[in-house]
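USER:
I would value a second opinion on how I read folds in token form. Give me a protein, with the fold worked out from its sequence. Write it directly below this note and I will take it from there.

ASSISTANT:
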Amino acid sequence: MPNPKTILITGCSAHGIGAALALTLARQGHFIFATARNTSKIPERLSALENVQVLPLDVTDPASIAGAVSSVREHGRGLDILVNNAGTGYTMPLLEADLDRAKAVYEANVWGLLGLIQACSDLLVAAKGRIVNMSSVGAVVNTPWIGIYSSSKAAVTQLSETLRLELSPLGVSVLCIMAGTITTDFHANEPEVVLLPTSRYAAIRQTISDWATGRAGPQGCSADEFANSIAGEVLGSSSANGGLVWKGPNSAAVKFMARWCPGGLLDRMMSNGQGLDELAKTTNKS
């Protein structure tokens, strides 16, 4: 194919967006560095391809970042596109959130992302390349129980837009994908929601747990479908200058609501089914 790209993608474990995107782009003829903290979780259908190089990469570990970037340099292909997809979630009422766990979310979703960008910056500037950061529609709406995760994605969005301005003179574009609802194994790595019997939220423990495990909430598209829908944006064949791109089920609706809905109406919509009304009734009785 003309002008194949060299692309590094983080978070390529099976059944996720990273693996699906890596497979989509590899099948188009691009060379992929497929990375994961545990490379045994990268699907064989991806790792077996001749134009895929598997690398271990834990974005929360500076030594792991340095090792992965060193391997990319040694390969001699340069780096055209960096896709920051790795991340983690945390579902818990903010009053009862474990701060160490909350900090770990920021280490993976925010500081790890920025650390990898910094480590890859020479390669990306040399290639006049592209950075693609995976954010979420949760970054722009207030949803109960996922405040740690959503705020980390709001930070990713803001960092992306600032980087877009700062890197533009250097010839590097920055794209931030505001992902809608995607069906993956994302929730499998979340800790179980454990509320003490004395918790202010004990009455709706099951509701919160259902959101944490993905049993509640809107249905999404598959990771493969989502990967196919964003491949053009990742490559720069569309959205060449970067910026925010809204993709996936519910993303267009959230974009509209966040901009145009009155705050009170938006709060009611985002709180629907979250157990807050039930909790209020329980509290009023006591």
